[in-house]
TrEMBL record:
Annotated source species: Pseudobacteriovorax antillogorgiicola
Upper lineage: Bacteria, Pseudomonadati, Bdellovibrionota, Oligoflexia, Oligoflexales
One Pfam family of this chain: Anti-Pycsar_Apyc1
Superkingdom assignment: Bacteria
Signal sequence interval, chain numbering: none
Gene3D superfamilies according to UniProt: Ribonuclease Z/Hydroxyacylglutathione hydrolase-like
This protein's name: Hemerythrin
Length: 734
């Protein structure tokens, strides 16, 4: 008899069930894992004694790692919410509230990090001192704390009170009803029941990466001077649509309003390169609105983070817990821009006003406006608001001051050209009926997995993925402006007038999935990627890398560098096609060949390294390439002595052999080390030079200024540290 049922939901994500033991384990928690279970029918609608609820897991196995292939591994917030509230484990009097707590399984370090992340996801900032430390007035901070405690049913509790914890650091662990689990290696586990055993490996294989459960078709969108692109109208339970969010297109730039799960996949299907995203306006820190922030770390510059100081503090504390990093380390990924509450803040010519909205954690609504002919053009984004019934109850119970409630309702109902509203219902979301008499020109109802009811359809409209509300149409040629900006970055030493002929070249649109040119082709023009994402495939088909907007392809042969790649459009792509004759003359006349050749030679070396395994070095990394150092190290001299003169730096092995004895890892060509030096400022792991080796160095301060590289440093540092810890634990047990 087979006791175990194991289902692979997606790479790095499994369902393991032992029916006889009433144990259902979600193994791994990458982004939107609840939606994968819903799609496979593992979460179902149930009914008993007239009560509707859901089925689902009652245990979670955490990954040993926080990050794999650049993506998050342990986003357990929504799976735990699903157990607490949609299954009913935490609801008083519910049929599923039997006293058995959901089970959280993992290493002691991961479980402790996860508890803090869940704690911050439930409550945000948890004391008056934490709120006032962000600059909040003590009076308003006191009101916010009273509201927060009301949402918390009268008391802020640590999640450890509601979860059963199982640590995997000390041999075999007993789960429910005779099921046992033990750790075989990093991210590798064995479960036993009766005389049967089964293994679960949460390590992503070389050809695997975490997937999105969403099914979206690539779209081509034209730039407007000021428009709203609707990127998601669902919630954390909607299997068809992304979570509520928007993309503002303003004067040739893109700004996100929240960054929910799979935002990289969503942007790709909108034809928006991450290199074109200037910043994010963050409403609050729940996973369905912020789990995609780390996807934006795959970029060459720090992300502009627009929020009130108290929302920023709430989000930062949660992210530090989730990633297991310090606030100082997290700050290398963001360029914070604190916004004044209830004031119009000017951001690159656009105005934005955040206002407080009652929610279990720190939350603001956002109002955007642009002065135009006849008055302002406006877009209001009301994510995760409270219904009038909930707020009126709080006034009745003297939780909230009536004057504050009046101000909040006034803010909600201010008319706009376009207003997007959360109508998720329940205790912590809005209700469409509250906006029945809203005088906005267009009301969009969002944050609801179910179809709109007839009554709701009379109040507001829906917005399909990729639909656009144009507030001010474009009169400019934004592709031309982008081309000019990219060329100025690529050739900072060249006068602007030298680019005029390039700006007259045709801009072609390539359909997603089409080949720009193959390795064996010799097109008569150079391609400058103006928008979208291109995949670069090596001639041996073993590796591929992404090229972001601003990259130039096809010009390497003009500086005597071989071009052995095939280029394919991942999204809709716009490219400026510059005739090779014009480009060749430009290089020759301005004597740019030595500069370009050096850039390409170093870039080609880096493109074969682990640092650029996903995104190819391009125009955006020219400063990094220029800082690249080269050094030969010998086996008869201490590695530390040979490298110390360079100061803290990332080391990449170009040729030779280097060994890491604590881990038992022999570095191969392209591997990097000294990530501990960059991440912590200290050398923590020994390196032995086995044979004379050629290494590349990138100074720590340069790495820390480039999120896409620093993100890989954090991932590698954690992987090596946790591999060492795992081996030590297993040796103790043996």
């Amino acid at each position: 008899m087979a006791y175990f049922e194991k289902i692979k939901l997606a790479p790095g994500l499994y369902w393991l069930e032992v029916k006889d033991a009433n144990l259902r384990i979600l193994c791994g928690c990458p982004s939107d894992s609840v939606k994968f279970m819903l799609k496979r029918g593992l979460i179902k609608q149930m009914e008993s004694h007239g009560l509707a609820f859901e089925s689902g897991p009652n245990a979670i196995l955490l990954s040993d790692l926080s990050i794999q292939k650049g993506d998050l591994c342990n986003l357990a917030e929504f799976p735990i919410l699903q157990m607490f509230y949609r299954q009913g484990f935490l609801i008083p009097g519910h049929i599923n509230n039997t006293g058995q707590k959901p089970l959280l399984i993992g290493t002691r370090q991961q479980v402790r990090d996860q508890l803090e992340y869940i704690y911050r996801g439930n409550y945000g900032l948890t004391s008056l001192d934490e709120l006032t430390a962000t600059g909040l007035d003590k009076g308003l901070a006191s009101e916010m704390m009273k509201i927060k405690i009301h949402f918390a049913f009268g008391q802020i509790c640590h999640p450890e009170e509601f979860l059963e914890l199982c640590y995997l650091d000390q041999g075999v662990s007993d789960l429910h009803h005779g099921v046992q689990v033990k750790r075989l290696g990093l991210n590798h586990y064995e479960f036993k029941y009766q005389k049967e055993s089964i293994q679960v490996d949460l390590n992503l294989q070389p050809d695997e990466e975490y997937k999105s459960p969403l099914a979206q078709n690539p779209l081509f969108l034209r730039d407007q001077y000021f428009s709203v692109i609707h990127s998601g109208e669902g919630d954390g339970w909607d299997v068809e649509r992304g979570s509520m969010g928007s993309v503002l297109n303003f004067d040739g730039h893109y700004y996100l309003v929240d960054a929910g799960p799979n935002i990289d996949f969503i942007l790709q299907n909108l034809g928006i390169s991450m290199a074109s995203v200037k910043g994010v306006f963050q409403t609050h820190g729940h996973d369905d609105h912020c789990a995609g922030l780390t996807s934006l770390f795959h970029c060459h510059r720090r992300l502009k983070f627009f929020a009130t100081p108290w929302v920023r503090a709430s989000v930062y504390k949660k992210m530090c817990a989730l990633l297991g990093i310090s606030m100082e380390q997290l700050s290398n990924f963001f360029q914070p821009h604190d916004l004044e509450m209830d004031d119009w803040n000017r951001v690159d010519g656009l105005e934005v006003k955040p206002s407080y909205s009652p929610h279990p954690i720190e939350t603001t609504i956002f109002k955007f406006r642009l002065l135009w002919e006849g008055g302002h053009r406006t877009y209001f984004h009301l994510a995760d608001i409270s219904s009038y019934d909930v707020m009126d109850t709080m006034v009745h119970k003297k939780v909230i001051d009536p004057s504050l409630l009046g101000k909040i309702k006034q803010e909600y109902l201010e008319p706009a050209d376009v207003k997007k509203i959360d109508i998720g219902g329940g205790m912590i979301h809005g209700n469409a009926v509250d906006f029945k008499y809203d005088r906005s020109k267009r009301v969009i109802l969002a944050h609801k997995a179910e179809a709109l009811s007839k009554d709701e359809k009379e109040i507001g409209s829906s917005a399909p993925f990729g639909s656009v509300d144009i507030l001010v149409p474009s009169q400019s040629k934004y592709p031309t402006k982008r081309i000019e900006n990219f060329l100025r970055q690529y050739f900072p030493m060249v006068p602007l007038e030298e680019f005029r002929s390039f700006l007259q070249c045709p801009v072609e649109t390539k359909v997603a999935g089409s080949i720009l040119f193959r390795e064996r082709d010799a097109p008569p023009f150079i391609n400058l990627i103006v928008s979208g994402v291109v995949e670069r495939i090596t001639a041996d088909h073993l590796t591929s890398q992404q090229l972001l907007a601003g990259s130039i392809i096809g010009d390497a042969p003009l500086v005597d560098i071989a071009e052995n790649y095939t280029y394919r459009a991942i999204s809709y792509v716009q490219t400026s096609q510059i005739p090779k004759d014009i480009y060749r003359e430009f290089i020759s006349r301005l004597d740019l060949k030595p500069y370009l050749k050096d850039l390409y030679q170093k870039g080609r070396i880096l493109s074969k390294t682990e640092v650029f395994s996903q995104i190819a070095p391009s125009i955006h990394y020219s400063d990094t390439i220029q800082e690249l150092g080269m050094l030969r190290v010998k086996p008869d001299v201490s590695f530390d002595k040979q490298i110390s003169a360079h100061g803290p730096c990332l080391v990449i092995l170009e040729s030779g052999k280097i060994y890491m004895p604590e881990i038992g890892e022999s570095l191969s060509q392209g591997d990097f080390c000294c990530e501990d030096w960059v991440a912590t400022g200290q050398r923590q792991r020994r390196l032995e030079v086995v044979e004379e080796s050629r290494i590349l160095t990138i100074p720590a301060h340069v790495v820390q200024a480039v999120p896409s590289i620093y993100w890989q440093v954090i991932e590698k540092h954690q992987w090596r540290q946790r591999l060492m810890d795992c081996r030590k634990d297993l040796q103790k047990i043996a």
